[in-house]
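Submission sheet (multi-component)
Chains listed below:
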Amino acid sequence: MTRHGAGIWLMTLSLLLSGCVTSRIEQSRDTATAMGTGDAMVILGRASYNDRETEESFTDCIVDELSSGGNPITLVPQKEFKDNLYPWFEPRIAPTSAEDLSRLFTESGVRDRMDESNIKYLAWIQGDTVTTGKGGSMSCTLSTFGGGCFGMSYWEQDASYEASIWDVDKLTNAGQISADASGTSYIAGLIIPIPIIARPGNAACKGLANQLREFIVGGG
Amino acid sequence: MNYWRGQRTKCLELLCQIKTMRLLSVSAALVLLMLQAGCPTRNVTVAGSVPTPLVERIPASIGIYYSYEFKSFEHKEALPGSGSYRIDLGGQNLDFFRNLLGAMFAEVIEVNQPSVQEGDELDAILIPEIVKYGFLVPSVSTLTFFEASIEYQITVLDRAGQELGKLRIVGYGKAEGSMFGGVDAVGEATMLAIRDGGARIATELSPRIAALLADSEETNGLQP
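Outcome: structure written.
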């Protein structure tokens, strides 16, 4: 088999083994937006002290999507931003609204530090991916004569995320974008286990990142 | 004759099987014992950035006493079903505090004794301590992340060595764990707990320390 043929075979196989995902993206805009030359944005995962919080992998995915492609956005890394403005963006103290942000700007040095980084927009990402249901059964055996898996098992996942975009210059809420995606994954045991995996978290990330790019650059 | 020979062979085979089974069970038990005995303590190294807090400095000259226990703090614990952990957080915690307290006051001097010595021109002495440290792993907490918490106490002494107050705060951190990343996740959660503790000291305790110093100044100023 040639390398070209192997590539097509792998692509077909991955398409066949990908589960279906349905997703919905919604947006509401409060003010017009635009990014000038040298302007930057920061993506922050909203941390909480309960048992559910935005996964680091999700914010990393949004950052990867926004900083790549044909129209990349200049992003300040979350860690660098939090270190520069320590302690004001730590989970316990971080502003929860654009009004809180204006209060924070009265603290010594905060406004200057923000201006130095050329940050025009802050996007807070909040949400998570949860398993909403699972079922089926599959058993695998292994013996000296061989082994195999029989049965079928499935699980449903629901990814729900929201981005709140704050305008740092105007100290207002620029808008919100929400992304919801759900999908069911299967593992069918036909001697060898065949996984058909749905990735709603990935779909929500791509949908949210594309809409966020359009929201910021598109202007409104 | 052949029947008896056959029976004897069968008996020998059975004996051999029993011996093999015994040997296997003994070997398995030995392997398990070796695994348990050889399972090393997990050494957790706490590392991370040491940010300088962006806060207004308190106009005071402060002496800080870091005890040996504070500088070399480490925590050892054996969790049922998760093995033993040794968390060495003293070094990173000390770096964090040096940077934090250095940015909170106009002048900071590290002192070797928890008291004001003759010739010292200090407004007060702060003695930070780690009162309690704890951590949780998913197999114990049944949650999906690793957690750590540190309880700090800061004792404030005036220039006469009188205690002005003891302030306590708790720093908390949690970190996602990967499949084989338990050690890293405990380290990360501990680092986040130090950061959280530092943030609380800079924002919550700082005004209280300033108020204690102002009260002390006022009282001392009124004395004849």
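Remark: Chain B has a mean pLDDT of 83.
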